[in-house]
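lol forgot to send this yesterday, sorry. struct tokens for the thing we talked abt
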């Protein structure tokens, strides 16, 4: 599973960046002739902009400008420990400004058979200038460090993870894919929001760029399911290689089999926060809504078993509906006639989160929902 380490400063910056974390839903067939897409000069590394010039020039730490050299030499983490960046480790400069320096290096791609998505091929380190923090002296501080997959900057689209559903048929002109959105999406899939931005076919390759249209609104960040998606080629695939060209360094697509096998035995459930999913994001007061867990194959744990409530500005409204340990079955919740507005369907554990390791951070699975008044 991809992990990124943030200092308290970095966590604040990331929280601000993700507060509008978005993305929407429904699978549509790609247009017969996708709109031509021309890649720009920008890339993204976990949200950090990387210019094509910086990537091509790869200025080593030994040649960073004076300001950048001072920033990296003075920077510490907020606990006072130094930033450890050895020039011989392959770091090169991405950004050097008055208030931020970012460096990056290439890493080997290691396939993660449990967590679907895009395996990292870079590592990035950023330091930021702090002047007016209540808990830090003015100076340079480490703000983030971690792995990333360097992708094209698609503007208002995001680059997803792409795999084959099964080994492709050389005699078919259909590519049956699984598309995994990388943005926060409250545990939903990307159905209806996947778009073919570019499809380039040659005698030896098929280069594919897919983008996911943002859902919009505020979304939580649990793991979410892959979305089945079919791309139609102009002729049968044959022995051509299919490349994920949404990456800075395109990679051949792999088959989903090993990940499916891992998910079948639930190997990922301990790493993915369990969330709720309502069958309808907008319901009418007085009616019912079906609620299930996501990921769907992960059962309710002993630490999370409890009652489903409706949490709105007026407080919590009990529903009398429970989700028991070991269950993956949906439940049906009746919405009270007088309740309207934007809020949450939330599972409140029976166990006190302060005394339970599994919920030590008081994590309650939830789904966002809008309740409209009866007509």
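and heres what i got for the seq, position by position
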């Amino acid at each position: 599973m991809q992990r990124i380490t943030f200092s308290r400063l970095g966590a604040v910056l990331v929280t601000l960046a993700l507060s509008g974390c978005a993305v929407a839903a429904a699978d549509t067939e790609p247009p017969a002739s996708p709109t031509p897409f021309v890649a720009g000069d920008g890339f993204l590394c976990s949200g950090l902009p990387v210019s094509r010039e910086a990537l091509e020039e790869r200025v080593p730490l030994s040649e960073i400008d004076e300001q950048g050299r001072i920033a990296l030499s003075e920077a510490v983490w907020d606990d006072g420990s130094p930033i450890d960046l050895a020039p011989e480790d392959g770091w090169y400069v991405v950004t050097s400004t008055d208030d931020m320096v970012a460096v990056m290096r290439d890493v080997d791609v290691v396939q993660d058979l449990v967590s679907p998505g895009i395996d990292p091929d870079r590592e990035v380190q950023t330091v930021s200038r702090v002047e007016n923090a209540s808990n830090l002296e003015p100076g340079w501080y480490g703000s983030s460090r971690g792995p990333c997959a360097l992708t094209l900057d698609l503007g208002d689209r995001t680059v997803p993870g792409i795999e084959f559903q099964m080994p492709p048929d050389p005699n078919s002109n259909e590519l049956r894919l699984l598309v995994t959105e990388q943005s926060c999406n409250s545990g939903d899939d990307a159905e209806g929001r996947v778009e073919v931005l570019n499809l380039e076919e040659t005698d030896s390759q098929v280069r594919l760029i897919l983008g996911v249209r943002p859902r919009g609104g505020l979304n939580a960040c649990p793991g979410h399911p892959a979305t089945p998606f079919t791309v139609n080629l102009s002729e049968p695939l044959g022995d051509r290689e299919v490349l994920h060209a949404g990456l800075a360094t395109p990679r051949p697509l792999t088959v989903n089999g090993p990940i499916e096998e891992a998910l079948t035995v639930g190997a990922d459930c301990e790493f993915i926060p369990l969330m709720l999913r309502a069958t309808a994001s907008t319901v009418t007061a007085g009616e019912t809504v079906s609620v299930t867990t996501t990921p769907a194959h992960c059962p309710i744990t002993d630490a999370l078993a409890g009652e489903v409530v409706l949490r709105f500005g007026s407080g919590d409204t009990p529903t009398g509906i429970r989700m028991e340990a070991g269950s993956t079955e949906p439940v049906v919740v009746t919405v009270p006639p007088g309740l309207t507005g934007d809020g949450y369907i939330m599972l409140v554990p029976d166990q006190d989160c302060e005394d339970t390791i599994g919920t030590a951070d008081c994590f309650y699975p939830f789904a966002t929902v809008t309740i409209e008044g009866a007509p």
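Residues 161-264 form one domain. anyway ping me if u want another try
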